[in-house]
Structure formats: C-alpha cells, structure tokens
Amino acid sequence: MSRSATRARTQASNQISQLLVTAPEDLRERLHGAPLDLLETGTAFRVRDNDDTLAAITRLALCDLARRVEHLDEQLARTKARLARITAVVAPEPVAVCGLGPDVVGTTAAHCR
C-alpha cells in the first residue's frame, strides 16, 4: 500500500506542476515561488458552482489535486507508523542493532519467509 500511495502522490504532485504551467497568467503569478504553501493554498481555493471560467476550473483542479496529496500524505504516515510497530515486534534485532528502517526490514523479512 505504501508503494502505491507514494506513486499516486507523485502523480498528483506532477499534475499540480503541469497544471501550473498551463494555468492563466494571473493565477500562475499568484502561486509562483510558493511550493511549500501551494498545497495549503490549493486546498483553500473556493469556486462558485456557476463559474466556468478557465481560472475557476484551474483552481478547482488544483484544489482537488492538493486535497488528494494531503490525503495520500496522511495515508502514508499511518502506513509507515503501523509498519514501524509491526517491524519492531517481528524483527526487533535488525531495527535495534543495525538501525535499519521498517521498509528495509519489512521487505527483507517478507522475502526470507
């Protein structure tokens, strides 16, 4: 699940970048240089139901994509926390001695069984 969520997050982030390239100039200027705030700004966009302008549709798409990225970030955090707990129980030695992370230990343990 972690791998697919990471891929989906990357796709959504790439779509945001691509959308910004083709966005109307005023919107592009408003969002330029704020990559860290972009998700926060994107999720805050509001679009009236009857506004079908290019700028409105672009803001709507940015909002949807930003929300998708935030959702995937939350999903990844939950998955990583759970994997760390499971790994610490199933294979505590490699985690403690070698300092290996749950991704490496989990993958190795799954292939060794």
Question: Which helices and strands appear, and what pairs or packs with what?
Answer:
Layout: H1 2-22, H2 25-31, H3 35-44, H4 54-90, H5 92-98, H6 102-112
Helix pairs in contact: 1-4, 3-4, 4-5, 4-6
How would you describe the overall organization of this protein?
- The chain is mainly alpha-helical.
- It has one domain (2-83).
- It contains 6 helices and no strands.
- 14% of the residues are buried.
- α1 runs antiparallel to α4 (54-90), α3 crosses α4 and α4 (54-90) packs across α6.
Write a concise keyword list for the protein shown above:
6 helices; single chain; 113 residues
Oligomer: single chain
Helix content: over 70%
N-to-C SSE string, H for helix and E for strand: HHHHHH
Number of domains: 1
Quick overview:
The protein has 113 residues and is an all-alpha fold.
